[in-house]
Design goal:
This protein has about 290 residues and is an alpha+beta fold. It has helices at about 40-55, 60-70, 120-140, 155-160, 175-190, 210-215, 225-235, 250-270; strands at about 25-30, 30-35, 75-80, 85-100, 105-115, 145-150, 200, 240-250. The relative contact order is 0.14.
């Protein structure tokens, strides 16, 4: 890196989990602007992060992943580590301007990429909120949206868990103003339209999810409304088709998302009550 000054992004509180699972807690390092990395540092770090990307998204060229994902111009990069400090993933994020019908909008885009078996979505939610909050403070009156390329139904479900409203929504139509922003952003990214759904798209050289069977066999995903909606709109995601989504990021939306993250962590980390042994139950029959 060419500079070592700490980032000035505001902090989002991280409640501590008091259970034995705390030793498995994941943490993202402080986000760093990609402009702070010189060319040798970019080549070295990209060589380290590229296998992590390939483990989930297949055979995109190293140069494409390095220049268009890891070190995307104007973006931030953060590394995900486990409790022992081992590198297990990374996150990227940036905010850029988009003009639609004469009005300037801020558009947030980002992603998280982890080694197989690592669930980094919750940690990435906190990282993304930091970047979004910093942009919101810089431009408090400008319209701000998160536009995401959902390559997996799991990502779509995670968005609904973090944010109160993400469009398209299974239960309500996309507001015309938001649909116009999403359409314009899809066009600006140079995405192709492989189906009749207005928000399903693909890149000319698409990344492909490599653990499709894990998703299809997951018992916890069956019957989930968000999963079902995604599969109905984008059944060919295994071929690199993306469901593009838009999430409003006003002050009220950010506060609600932060509370959902914090409260959700506390509920998941709450110790389970210890039940007294029943005199009529045996370990084989107690569930």
């Amino acid at each position: 890196m060419t500079a070592s000054n700490p980032s000035t992004l505001p902090l989002v509180p991280r409640p501590r989990c008091p259970t034995r699972r705390a030793r498995h807690r994941l943490r993202f390092e402080r986000p760093q602007p990609v402009s702070r990395f010189d060319e040798p540092a970019r080549r070295a770090l990209a060589a380290t992060l590229y296998p992590i990307f390939r483990a989930s998204y297949g055979e995109l060229p190293l140069e494409t992943v390095r220049d268009e994902i890891i070190f995307r111009a104007g973006g931030y990069l953060t590394l995900l580590r486990d409790a022992e400090g081992a590198l297990i993933g990374f996150g990227t994020a940036r905010v850029h301007e988009l003009t639609v019908d004469g009005r300037t909008h801020g558009v947030f885009e980002g992603g998280v990429y982890c080694r197989p078996g690592v669930k980094g979505g919750e940690a990435f939610g906190l990282f993304a909120l930091r970047v979004i909050l910093a942009e919101r403070l810089r431009h408090p009156l400008r319209s701000l949206h998160l536009v995401a390329e959902m390559l997996s139904p799991v990502s779509y479900r995670l968005a609904h868990r973090i944010f109160a409203t993400t469009y398209p929504d299974p239960e309500k139509p996309t507001p015309p103003a938001l649909a116009a922003v999403l359409e314009a952003e899809i066009e600006s990214r140079g995405l192709l339209r492989p189906t009749e759904h207005p928000f399903v798209a693909r890149y000319p050289d698409p990344a492909l999810p490599v653990r499709i069977e894990d998703i299809r066999r997951s018992e916890s995903l069956r019957g989930d409304p968000a999963i079902d909606a995604y599969l109905r709109w984008n059944p060919h995601y295994a071929q690199g088709h993306l469901l593009c989504t838009i999430t409003p990021l006003g002050w009220r939306d950010l506060v609600a998302a932060a509370l959902r993250q914090i409260v959700g962590r506390r509920i998941r980390c709450r110790p389970r009550p210890q039940l007294a042994a029943s005199p009529v139950s045996s370990p084989e029959t107690t569930r």
